[in-house]
Amino acid sequence: MKLTFLGTGTSTGVPQLMCDCEVCRSTDPRDSRMRCSALIETDEGNILIDCGPDFREQMLRFHRWGNIDALLVTHQHYDHVGGTDDLRPYCKGKEAFPIYCNRDVEMDLHRRMPYCFTENPYPGVPKLEIHRIEHGERFKLCGLKVVPFQVMHAQLPILGFRIGNLAYITDAKDIPDESYDIISGVDILIVNALRHEPHMSHMTLADALTVIERVKPRRAYLTHLSHQMGRTADIEPTLPAEVFIANDGGTINF
User: Fold this and answer.
1) Distance between CA atoms of 164 and 186, rounded to whole angstroms?
2) Omega of the bond prior to 15 within 30 degrees of 0, cis?
3) What is the C-alpha separation between 37 and 8, in angstroms, rounded?
4) Are strands 70-72 and 37-42 parallel, antiparallel or unpaired?
5) pLDDT of res. 123
6) Angle CA(205)–CA(211)–CA(212) in degrees, nearest 5?
7) What is the pTM of this model?
8) Could you count the other beta carbons within 10 Å of the beta carbon of residue 156?
9) Are 90 and 66 spatial neighbours (Cβ–Cβ below 8 Å)?
10) What confidence score (pLDDT) does residue 108 get?
11) DSSP sequence for the chain
12) Rg (CA), the chain
């Protein structure tokens, strides 16, 4: 099985428009980040995690000819669902494309894309089928056991996912104890780390390292980075062993 980081940046992407900082001017491709998303490939199918506004470019760059069989959504913010309409090519040959999400995301998609859920949809719109999931509700997808778990994005409860022996967390500020019970001891932990300074709804680098120390994975990857994190070449050498900065197009075998 393989995970590809399709995007590892925060909601503005990196470089950020109208910014002239050293990260946004960097020529190192590791410092260029599309909005946060990942793709898991298995022998039985391919699972997309989040579908933001850069989705089409991500597919053209990293998965142009590959299929996608299902979408897991962490939460309803635009940088995580803004590309959902572009799933229409992956609806071909299916009665409907399955999306796994909580109730908040389901309601948001109905408001954002009402044309997909009418009784007589216009020909060519994405054919979407919502599967509502909740914290701790285990299910199988493309041959993998998936366990959604709750994390807090400021005051908004959103989902992380344990997929086999990998855990994926984005946009978290805090993780409840019951979610630590689900992810403790995974082989691979992917967790958001926005910047160094405190933020009201995202973990800092120090916060993420504290989570990694508690979970104790074999390897950990930092994602959902902003330009305020600094250049990859400067930050990565300061990290503990087996903690890495995720980069667009990077892959993990697990």
Assistant:
1) 9
2) yes
3) 7
4) unpaired
5) 86
6) 90
7) 0.97
8) 14
9) no
10) 97
11) -EEEEEE-B-TT-BSPTT--STTTT---GGG-BPBSEEEEEETTEEEEE---TTHHHHHHHH-TT----EEE-S--SHHHHTTGGGGGGGGTTSSSEEEEE-HHHHHHHHHH-GGGSSSSPPTTS--EEEEE--TT--EEETTEEEEEEEEEETTEEEEEEEETTEEE--S-SB--HHHHHHHTT-SEEEEE---SS--SSS--HHHHHHHHHHH--SEEEEESB-GGG--HHHHGGGSPTTEEE--TT-EEE-
12) 17
Q: Per-residue confidence at 122, pLDDT binned at 50, 70, 90?
A: confident
Given a cut of 90, whether residue 253 has pLDDT beyond it is yes
CA 169/CA 85 separation, integer angstroms: 24
Q: Partners of 158 in the beta sheet?
A: 151
Predicted confidence (pLDDT) per residue in 31-67, tens digit: 999 999 999 999 999 999 999 999 999 999 999 999 9
Hey, how many other C-beta atoms are within 10 angstroms of the C-beta on 227? 23
Q: What residues pair up with 139 in beta bridges, in sequence order?
A: 146
Residue of 118, 240, 113, 125 lying closest to 189 (CA atoms): 240
Token pair of 163 as six digits: 């997929």
Q: How far apart are CA 253 and CA 139, in angstroms?
A: 22
Q: 140 — phi, psi (to 5°)? A: -105, 140
